[in-house]
Amino acid sequence: MDSTSRYIWAVVGVVGGAVVLKIVSKVLSALRNRAKTVEGFPGPKTHWLLGNLDTLTNDEHGLTLMTSWSRLYRGVYALWFGPAMPVLVAYHPDTTQAILSSNEPKDEGFYCFLRPWIGDGLLVSKGEKWARTRRLLTKAFHFQVLQSYMEVFSQSTNVLLNKWRQLDGDHAAVELYKDTSLLTLESLTKCIFGVNINCQDTDVSHPYATAVLDMLVLMNQRLLFVPHHNDLIYYFSLSGYRFRRACRVAHDFSRKVVRERQLAKQSGVTDDQRKTKYLSMIDILLEARDEDGTGLSNDEIFDEVDTFMFEGHDTTACGLSWLLHNLATHPECQEKCRREAIDVLGSRSTLEWEDLPKLQYISQCLKESLRLHPPVPFVARRAANGVSFADGRRAPNGVGIVVDINSTHRNPDLWPDPEVFDPERFAPDKVEKRPPFSYIPFSAGYRNCIGQQFAQNQMKTAVALILKNFELTHDASRPPVRDPKFVLRSKTGLWVHLKQL
């Protein structure tokens, strides 16, 4: 190599080295700045590269670990997802109230996997769009509308009961989530679309039901496999192709029903002429108007319909299956619920709106089950404007904040013997003794779940009718293992044995 070549390579080396040093300097500066953003918030020991990812897992162990950290680091603590992404975790009512009472937006990084399905619906939208949509959708959950759905809840539950009656053996084993998922999917499509897809019929596999169930499985798989967090990698993967295909099926169905309802209204076909006793949510969305007469666009209606389906189906199925499993594990509570259901229902197979307040002990058991097994164990916010806590600390602008509902519900300062299933915690004379934001299974504050009453009514109806007809026994050979993904399921399933009464 001649002197000129050596000179050129020397210059290239110096310039290249300078560029590398500049990049390294910027990365280190960014890491230091990131670290400074959460100064004052202690947390578990971190790995220099992985942060807390080497110890924090998305399973039963991870839930238990976060609960132990919540008892060690009071109020709020910091977790690191890699070397440069801090997240604050809040679990005490004093801190969760500061977050949930604010109007901070949802954390996009936590919910972005849902957007291809639900678009910019109420769950993920923010600012004025969210406020307007929330205002327009409130009518869809008015008590007069919810009252009309009681017959739908009873009908769908009775389909499940008839299916269970055909099982072989006096103590047939069933996995609860599988059946409750189809139950809630069938009733939800009736309430949202005014259409019965008969998905509980084992001889029928409706494309929409299959697509919804496929998307839920695929989203959970994507959440676990970090390379698929990248949109480009996921797009070219087999799972990405399957997810897009399921999305198309679901969107084609929902859009077809919406357009049919629009045409029916234009032609003057009313619900009375269709001989239905309830107003579907699509009809309510089509009629929703601002003060100036502006309604929701077609795209906004599509997004809200898909959001209702995601939020109302899987979360309710999980809540119901955990409740039934908890009652199977505690036969004395189950028997007390059964006596209450029989007293209220008598010989009827349909629960009425006026019956709901009479199901007091069933309501207590439901609340206690939602405390121990909240269907959504975490919600995430982005501190766009910063959040100040009662102890004087402040979450800096832009940092993600996770509200750990599971640990809030297992805080021994709020719930004595928190791991024990005790419905008496929610007896009328004890409810008011707890501080606000100590019980938040449907979140709380500005962005609480708009459909929480809908979900609770369906769960109460199903439990009352099921216990009137069946005795549930815990399957000790297959204990549940909590599996927190988008919702709280069991990795081993929720198995019980059925005895027809």
TrEMBL record:
<dbReference type="GO" id="GO:0005506">
    <property type="term" value="F:iron ion binding"/>
</dbReference>
<dbReference type="InterPro" id="IPR050196">
    <property type="entry name" value="Cytochrome_P450_Monoox"/>
</dbReference>
<dbReference type="GO" id="GO:0016705">
    <property type="term" value="F:oxidoreductase activity, acting on paired donors, with incorporation or reduction of molecular oxygen"/>
</dbReference>
<feature type="binding site" description="axial binding residue">
    <location>
        <position position="449"/>
    </location>
    <ligand>
        <name>heme</name>
    </ligand>
</feature>
<keyword id="KW-0349">Heme</keyword>
<dbReference type="GO" id="GO:0004497">
    <property type="term" value="F:monooxygenase activity"/>
</dbReference>
<comment type="similarity">
    <text>Belongs to the cytochrome P450 family.</text>
</comment>
<dbReference type="InterPro" id="IPR017972">
    <property type="entry name" value="Cyt_P450_CS"/>
</dbReference>
<keyword id="KW-0503">Monooxygenase</keyword>
<keyword id="KW-0479">Metal-binding</keyword>
<keyword id="KW-1133">Transmembrane helix</keyword>
<dbReference type="InterPro" id="IPR002401">
    <property type="entry name" value="Cyt_P450_E_grp-I"/>
</dbReference>
<dbReference type="InterPro" id="IPR036396">
    <property type="entry name" value="Cyt_P450_sf"/>
</dbReference>
<keyword id="KW-0812">Transmembrane</keyword>
<keyword id="KW-0472">Membrane</keyword>
<protein>
    <recommendedName>
        <fullName>Cytochrome P450</fullName>
    </recommendedName>
</protein>
<dbReference type="InterPro" id="IPR001128">
    <property type="entry name" value="Cyt_P450"/>
</dbReference>
<keyword id="KW-0560">Oxidoreductase</keyword>
<keyword id="KW-0408">Iron</keyword>
<dbReference type="GO" id="GO:0020037">
    <property type="term" value="F:heme binding"/>
</dbReference>
<feature type="transmembrane region" description="Helical">
    <location>
        <begin position="6"/>
        <end position="24"/>
    </location>
</feature>
<dbReference type="Pfam" id="PF00067">
    <property type="entry name" value="p450"/>
</dbReference>
